[in-house]
Amino acid sequence: MTTIISPKQFSPVEDAENIRKACQGWGTDEKAIISILGHRNLFQRKLVRLAFQEIYHQDLLQQLKCELSGNLERAISLWTLDPADRDAVLANETLQKSDPDYRVIIEIACIRSPEDLLAVKRAYKFRYKHSLEEDLASSTTADIRKLLVGVTSAYRYDGDEFDETVAQSEASTLHQEIHGKAFNNEEVIRILGTRSQAQLNATFNIYKDIYGHSITKGFPGGDYFSTLRTVIRCIRDPKKYFAKVLRLAINMEETNEDALSRVIVTRAEKDLKDIKELYLKRNNISVDEAVAREWSGDYKTFILALLGADQN
């Protein structure tokens, strides 16, 4: 959603110099930094970071962390990172918390492509000298551990083909295992952790045809089923899922800047336009308007820049 500077107009050296100037003097010029980084695509941001390193022998991210603070610093730092490295940081941060937000892990495991997930796991291992699965297993227990390690360890087929016979069989299996009296999550984890998105969506559709309701309807309470519901929603309809995360981040009594930044930053160069359209349809207000209403200052300016709705 960002306004991209064309190659003819773009100069990574000039951007690096202007960011450096914004960081000098009595106070940081946050608006200047936002006007640059908020309008550069992934490739351009990489070049700016390289130019900054070559000219000043300093990592741009370290400079930003020194000069910025709070939600703005976090959002700009995440935006400046490569996507795989960004996801590795997000995963590690949530696993370090006393009450981890497993949505972060599920989004990475179930919405990223198989190749992207592999890249995240490589970046995680390089940064933290542990595997993502190892740290995830250490931070979870029982059925939630089995489920999250299962979907995070997956390398799914990424094509559109699916087998209808398998979908019918596994729709029945999921119904028996989830809603049956003798609950056993092994088959649930096997199906959700190995099948492709296309195959699982075929299974979910057939499930609804057979039983007259979505697979998540009537789930028992508890943390495990809440986590299982999120896994299914991320696989079934990522855009709808993200639109709901945005709605909750914006409309809760206490706004959730971490969730807002995570969705906007990670989807801005992917499917944010579609998520915004779905948000508007479901909430009768645009994401841009909602953000402008609930936030202020430089953080709002940066988020609106990523949304493509800069306000002067």
Automatic annotation (TrEMBL):
Record's keyword annotation contains Repeat: yes
An example molecular function term from Gene Ontology annotations: calcium-dependent phospholipid binding
PROSITE patterns: ANNEXIN_2
GO biological process: response to cold; response to heat; response to salt stress; response to water deprivation
Sequence positions that bind Ca(2+): 25, 27, 67, 250, 292, 294
Keywords assigned by UniProt, alphabetized: Annexin, Calcium, Calcium/phospholipid-binding, Metal-binding, Repeat
InterPro entries: Annexin (IPR001464), Annexin_repeat (IPR018502), Annexin_sf (IPR037104), AnnexinD_plant (IPR009118)
Top-rank taxon, per record: Eukaryota
Repeat listed as a keyword: yes
Record-level GO cellular component terms: cytoplasm; plasma membrane
UniProt protein name: Annexin
